[in-house]
Design a protein that fits this description.
Number of helices: 4
Strand content: 25-35%
Order of helices and strands: EEHEHEEHEHEEEE
Structural class: alpha/beta
Oligomer: single chain
Radius of gyration: 16 Å
Helix content: 10-25%
């Protein structure tokens, strides 16, 4: 069975975006030639799931080939139906059903790139298998929380931690399977 991994950055106080979906705080750890393991990680996935706000931001800031490089299936979770573009599907149905279906199919791993609503729905259904969380050395004070209240408790297994020059700490955990 394929695994679903979360690879995401957060502020030290647990925010993945400033108010108004502002991700500019990520720039404080930008370093030429450093991708913090992103390419190595994405080489292990052939499917990406993300929310529409995250998709729109990346489309505007980086371009459509960041996700849809012709080698991966991309599912943008949205409430607004839209025609498929390349290998990008704008998915309006039940997220839990989609992930269960994708996990049962053959292929490489699945990458969840946010946003918070998507992550928390997947946590409520106990579908995230691996957490790779990069902690940015900043306290934002408010914004969009990575983990929302109201989800079940989940115990995780520590895999490793890496630190990088600009102060970024990357934490890697795996879900402990329920018996």
């Amino acid at each position: 069975m394929r695994k679903l991994s979360l690879f995401i950055a957060t502020s030290l106080d647990g925010y993945i975006a400033k108010p108004n979906d502002d991700l500019s705080f990520l720039n404080i750890v930008e370093k030429k030639g450093e991708d913090y393991g992103y390419k190595e990680f994405t080489d292990t996935v052939d499917t990406i799931i993300l929310g529409r706000k995250t998709y729109d931001y990346v489309l505007k800031e980086i371009g459509d080939s960041h996700y849809d490089n012709g080698k991966r299936d991309v599912y943008v979770i949205t409430r607004t139906p839209k025609q498929k573009v390349g290998r990008t599907t704008f998915y309006t149905e039940n997220l839990t059903d989609l992930v269960k279906q994708l996990k049962s199919e053959k292929g490489q791993n699945i990458y969840c790139d946010g946003g918070a609503e998507i992550i928390n729905e997947l946590l409520k259904s106990d579908l995230i298998d691996e957490f790779i969380i990069s902690v940015i050395p900043i306290l934002l004070g408010n914004g969009t929380r990575l983990f929302k209240d109201g989800r079940p408790e989940q115990e995780l297994n520590f895999i490793n931690a890496k630190t990088y020059d600009p102060g970024l700490a990357q934490l890697h955990y795996k879900r402990i399977l329920k018996k």
